[in-house]
Write a structure and sequence with these properties.
single chain, 205 residues, mainly alpha, 67% helix, globular
């Protein structure tokens, strides 16, 4: 995965991460592996890690069951969040986020990446959806459209309302070393057991 600077020798890490996440959440390894490439370059350039991208993908897919839609949404959101204002000093959407009591800029002065921004925004979004006034909802809907674009709002909402899973999937991915090898070992043991059982059955004929 060149976007994240994985070398060929490190490719087993990708397999481990996808395998472990698919084992623990309602996503398949195929959904992840076949669609992450659509968005990898767009998010990696802004500092998103492979683990964070897996987290975003998992959160969305668990809700909408559409990996391609989720990947396209993340790509659109990442691109829009990186846009700067006319002076080139602040993110273009900073003032809209400020209206909800958050900033797109980290304490060190750097702009948050898409994972960091949505992580901080998710609890605000979920609270307003549950208890917000009509005026707050109108402002929220305008911000969502500016973040994702009209066609990607629903997929963005899926990620936001399931962001606890995104956070958990990141941790799962970070701790996934050896996952694929362990699963393969279990499979081989199971296969060996089946062969032994079959051999025993034939011996008794």
């Amino acid at each position: 995965m060149k976007a994240f600077n994985f070398t060929a020798s490190e490719s087993i890490q990708i397999i481990d991460k996808i395998n472990e996440v698919s084992n623990n959440y309602a996503v398949s390894s195929g959904q992840l592996s076949q669609n992450i490439g659509k968005v990898a370059s767009a998010v990696a350039s802004s500092g998103v890690t492979y683990d964070e991208l897996l987290g975003l993908m998992t959160a969305g897919i668990e809700v909408n069951r559409n990996a391609s839609k989720t990947a396209n949404s993340i790509k659109s959101v990442s691109t829009r969040l990186k846009r700067m204002d006319a002076d080139g000093e602040l993110p273009k959407l900073e003032k809209q986020f400020n209206e909800f009591g958050m900033s797109m800029v980290r304490a060190d002065g750097y702009t948050k990446n898409v994972f960091e921004t949505l992580r901080d925004f998710a609890p605000i979004y979920n609270e307003i959806v549950a208890e917000g006034t009509p005026e707050q909802m109108n402002k929220m809907n305008k911000l969502l459209e500016n973040i994702a674009g009209v066609y990607n709002i629903s997929a963005l909402q899926d990620i936001l309302k399931n962001f606890d899973t995104a956070n958990e999937a990141v941790i799962t991915s970070l701790n996934a070393q050896g996952s694929a090898m362990q699963e393969n070992a279990k499979y081989m043991q199971s296969l060996e057991a089946r062969v032994n059982l079959l051999s025993s059955a034939y011996a008794q004929l």
